[in-house]
Amino acid sequence: MFFGKPFLIVILFVVCSVDVSGQQAIFTVSGEISFPGTGDLYVQLITKEEFDSDRDAGFGIIVAVGPEDVKKGRALFAFTGVPGGRYGIRCFQDVSGTGKMEKGMFGPKEPWGTYRPARPAFRAPRFDEISFEVNKDIGEIKIELK
Fold it and tell me: How far apart (Å, rounded) are the C-alpha atoms in residues 125 and 104?
């Protein structure tokens, strides 16, 4: 055999010592949502592509609002396993209990909000107005639904 045990050991050493820093880091994004009424909170961590297409986000959670949360008017949320990148957060409170945001002629009928609050008059916020970079764990995000 042309290659012996020493060669195999060297190959194993090289393979095992490959730098794994090329793997994408993952993070946690968390915070608190204040809200005015009753109903579960639908929270989405969205990419620009998801925002532009208005499709559901890869990271979406439903925060069940209990009596203690209603009394305090706020609840906690967290997304784990988030790859680094640019994201926005959008949220609404499902007051009607339909599982989707009710919209009227002039916009949402239910309390809604975003991280980096943008509530321009006569139009919906743009992604660049609500987005932020995730390159580390981010906590203590505050979102106020109106």
Answer: 17
DSSP lists the bridge partners of residue 20 as none
Task: Tell me the whole-structure pTM to 2 decimals.
Answer: 0.80
CA angle 134, 36, 71 (to 5 degrees): 100
Which CATH fold would you assign to the domain 24-144?
A: Immunoglobulin-like (2.60.40)
For range 91-95, the mean pLDDT = 96
Tokens of 61: 């959670």
Q: Which one has a higher pLDDT value, 124 or 98? A: 98
Residue 94: helix, strand or coil by DSSP? coil
Query: What is the b/e burial string over 9-25, where b = at least 16 CB atoms within 10 angstroms of the residue's CB?
Result: eeeeeeeeeeeeeeeee
CA distance 103 to 100: 9
- In order, the DSSP letters of 4-18 are -HHHHHHHHHHHHT-
- Report pLDDT digits (tens) over 19-56: 445 678 999 999 999 999 999 999 999 999 999 997 77
